[in-house]
């Protein structure tokens, strides 16, 4: 059965500081209500790339402590500051995380040799397994099939979080590396990814829509494509509404409706305005309060 991981949202208070109570509640909600198999900590959804090192560490600590081994955890430690990435890899490993992940280095146009040495360097001093995080739409970095093969030469690299709509590449990689773990990263493209044989999915919208994502997986595994398409369409109605109203803010506001004190995003992301709040109430009524 495919695994469903929430890409963890982080609650920030009015001033943009980590709001521990809310973060703990989001973790709990994912375990108790969303019934996720795991949580991906420190990803895009956690607003990670706007944080300093001590804040990243604090989030890893809180998520680890609140989870208490109930579900699997993956710590995203990647950073364009390699020294920080290595420090975080060591930190989370010592905390007890069994799996790390790292986004491809971004901003500068690193060549593949540099990308490869970034990954091998992060893994040098830690004994954890690594899931590559590929998200070309945000990083501008695409990894080809042959480049994945080269990265997999490091036995600690066990899989990919594949956040892209390139299903040709996904099929090629799936077919060539049957033993690697592939997580689909775009929730709106879950069904095509599942149909190509991914092992699981990691997504922001699973913070409120994990049960339907799991049902989509199950329908494909039963061979019921008609049901799977119906479920994906229902999810995509919600995802379209979320994206058009401001993704992370709207999920946080929905979580608030569901009793989770998810609070705000951190600057430079904006706080929701009245219109977004009103629209979220409608979204809530449409999908969650039937
Ligand atoms: O973790 C997420 N990516 C980002 C992956 O947030 C950048 C996805 O879950 C998307 O948020 C989601 C909506 O496009 O698929």
> What integer value in Å does the Rg equal?
18 Å
**Strand portion:** 5-15%
* Percent of residues in helices: 40-55%
CATH superfamily: Aldolase class I
What does the main sheet amount to?
8 strands, parallel, barrel
Number of helices: 12
Q: Which residues form runs of ≥5 with pLDDT under 50? A: none
Basic shape: globular
Task: Identify every distinct bound molecule in the structure, by name, code or SMILES.
Answer: 2-(acetylamino)-2-deoxy-D-mannose
Distance between the termini: 29 Å
In the CATH hierarchy, what is the architecture at level 2?
Alpha-Beta Barrel
Give the SSE string. Answer: EHEHEHEHEHHEHEHEHHHH
What do the pLDDT scores average to? Answer: 97
Query: Would you state the CATH class?
Result: Alpha Beta
| CATH domain topology | TIM Barrel
User: How many domains would you count in the coordinates?
Assistant: 1
Structural class: alpha/beta
